[in-house]
Amino acid sequence: MSVVLTFTAAAGQVCSTAAECANQGVDNFVGTPKRVWAGVAALVSLVGVVAGASAWVRSARRGGHRGTRGAVVALAAGLLGGVNGAVDLAVADGGPGSGNGVVGAAAAAVLGVVAVVLGLLVLTRSRRPEPVG
User: What domain of life is recorded for the organism (predicted)?
Assistant: First the structure.
């Protein structure tokens, strides 16, 4: 219950235009649209990293799908979050603290690359034949 109330209170602080944000005095705790975009992209990339890491652990085991489903999730989430982070960095007008979501976008881009690499490693490992003996 308190999580919903906290989310509702935080969502009320999101400005819809640059003029509205300028009148509020953008600080570190106000969510501008670009900050929200970067934050969601970073969360999607983080989901990809977690899926890729768990798939990496599962791929070492024998039998079953050997983590390929997690690898596909890691690839998809990593690409989606990483590309959104890179686009947000490309369109940002200022640096950190400007309300453009630069820090979140950079985190999304880095985590997206990590998720894609983990997904590719798991897919490569799952295609190798199992050792005999």
Answer: Bacteria
On whether residue 72 sits in a domain, the answer given is yes
For 96, list phi and psi in degrees, rounded to 5. -60, 140
pLDDT (tens digit per residue) in 27-55: 555 667 788 888 889 999 999 999 999 88
The answer to the question of residue 59 being in a domain is yes
**Distance between CA atoms of 89 and 71, rounded to whole angstroms?**
26
Q: Number of structural domains, the chain? A: 1
Residue located via tokens 């969502």: 11
For residues 42, 45, 46, 47, the Cα torsion angle rounded to the nearest 10 degrees is 130
Torsion of CA 113, 114, 118, 121, to 10 degrees: 60
d(CA 82, CA 97): 21
Distance between CA 77 and CA 80 in Å, rounded? 5
Q: Mean pLDDT across the stretch 16-30? A: 57
| Average pLDDT value for the chain | 76
Q: How far apart are CA 10 and CA 50, in angstroms?
A: 26
